[in-house]
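Field reference: sequence -> structure
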Amino acid sequence: MKDRANYSPEEKLKIVQLVLSKKAKIQDIAKDKGIAPTLISLWKKQAQDAMEARFQPQPKGRRKCTPEAAPVTADTRSLKNEARKAKIKAAHLETSVKEMKARCARLEEALSALTAAMGYKMVKVRTPRKGRKA
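Structure field:
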């Protein structure tokens, strides 16, 4: 009994190109190469199917990829919990900063009104930046 022969993709491609170019018949190529004609017919069909699939209209836009579901472990759960808590804390800090800025603006207005009532002129003191000499 004969061992099965393995054909490289390059060899298969050359044979299929010969068949598709109509330079030789499947029977002649099969006899010449010592390959069963049904095998060459199978390769030809696979090539035609691949070409047909390649030239099918493709949907517009980006392909949607479905991420593989990561296994949920205790570490994953704890990290997600920490991330959620960090987001909440960041939101609280943002509102605190906004409140403090509004409070500073109100205090500056009150200070300018007070100095104007007392007859003083407000002068802003500039502090030198780091790296610069005063």
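Note: The two ends are 98 Å apart (CA to CA).
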